[in-house]
Amino acid sequence: xxxxxxxxxxxxxxxxxxxxxxxxxxxxxxxxxxxxxxxxxxxxxxxxxxxxxxxxxxxxxxxxxxxxxxxxxxxxxxxxxxxxxxxxxxxxxxxxxx
Length: 98
Known about the structure:
Layout: H1 8-19, H2 23-33, H3 36-53, H4 58-65, H5 69-81, H6 85-97
Helix pairs in contact: 3-4, 3-5
């Protein structure tokens, strides 16, 4: 996200996320903040990022996640040319598995 669009409300939200201690707290917070559909969409996008990072093809990702190829393409662009949010999170999750 371009730093130029960051405002006080966004910073407050991101700081709130950083206070969460575990998956259950995170789930409770996002359940209050978002609709079930919004949470599902975000989780499918992150799963697509993981699958792209594992060199899966668009058709396989679309079939498994239900995302459109346009959305998968956007996730892929973010992986390659974005702010490294997906890349950083995926790397940290992989290091936790070791």
